Amino acid sequence: MLRMVLKGMVIGIANIIPGVSGGTMAVSMGIYDKIIHAATHIVSEFKKSMRILIPIILGAAIGVVALARIIEMMFARAPFQTNLLFIGLIVGGLPAMARKVKGKSIRGGHILAFLFFFCMVAGLALLGEEEGAAADLSFSLWNVLKLVGVGVIASATMVIPGVSGSMMLMLMGYYTPILEQVNDFIDSLVALDVPAVLEGCKVLVPFGIGVVAGIFAIAKLVEFIFQRFPDYAYWAIIGLIVSSPLAILLMNPMGAVTALSLLTGAIALAAGVLAALKLGEE
Fold this sequence. Notes:
By secondary structure, this protein is mostly helical. 80% of the residues lie in helices and 0% in strands. The protein has helices at 2-16, 22-28, 32-40, 46-77, 79-101, 108-127, 141-159, 165-172, 175-190, 194-228, 230-251, 259-279.
């Protein structure tokens, strides 16, 4: 039980870091198939599924709460180094995906899958505004529906190995606002500020509903695709991974660039690559 909670914490932490995939972390820890199976057989194997999902969800929630404030501080105080760290984590995760297609023939469909998803992420970054600029979290029926939809999209991408749910939140302009809402909600909870807690629920509850719905909705589709078309799926994931650093550079403020920031940024980049390579070892 404790071991599964700890693994859930790793997945939760991965999902809150832009460019890092919780699905990839699940694969590296050998529990991805168990999670997908539990999500897709929750009705027919309810007790067995709950024994897997509850500690994972609990651990993921603890991981998100534990790291949310740290990530927010890193972006505020060292944006250049933080972005390079995330880019390193993305680049370092590429070999783990590349091994999935190593030695296999490359077909035209594989190239098309790669190009489509590369262009989709790069195009969204080129057309989109700076992260968080377009996000409106004021309470209204339309915004509630949008938050549910954003939760569905973000959680669906969290399930897919190699795809970052937080990166998708960035592309949609919701990453920083949601992160701030999580931190404000925790502060209000600790302070027993009931009105502020209820105010936070107006954002976090519809988003959370979308997250849960997205995970269960996409799990069956992911299971089918990886069983029937694994090579196409991995080439699509590689396209997403390769384009993610470009999206980060285009969308995120980098702050002032000095000789010291270049040096520390290079260290952060290398640390990210090494950490991802280590986590991707089989």
